[in-house]
Amino acid sequence: MNSLEEILEGEKATEELGRRLAPFLRPGDVVALYGELGSGKTCLVRGLARGLGVKEGEVSSPSFTLINEYAGPIPFYHIDCYRLQLREEIRELGLEDYLEGPGISAVEWAERIEDLPEVRLDIFFEILDEHRRRVVLKAGAEIAGRIGWGCRT
Fold first, then answer.
1. Reported pTM
2. With bands split at pLDDT 50, 70 and 90, how would you rate the model's confidence at 35?
């Protein structure tokens, strides 16, 4: 597993990281997001969406709808598992249709999903203070090589 760590200062930097990562993602890729409330997961998703051609201002947290689908050159699925507590709820949602589908999926609270695809980009957020976040990205050789940091561990 290859990894990269960055310290991000504010929401703009977090969105920018998402925008920078987006061109390296391909249909079928899954971005699994981990971190406590307010750590920056949705900010990063906004950047991913912008980088994937979703119109600015369209992205919002799907906490109550669970899944937001966005049109663009590649379909983009924003999945929020925060409100899902039971494995049965997650299974009933039919996530495999998204995770194995033709689009790119960003999954907040990914630790609540048992069977994430093995080939994915994991992003871990840690709150350092009110404005700064430590972000650790981990991926296997395929995705890390596309992003260009396959030689870092």
1. 0.89
2. very high
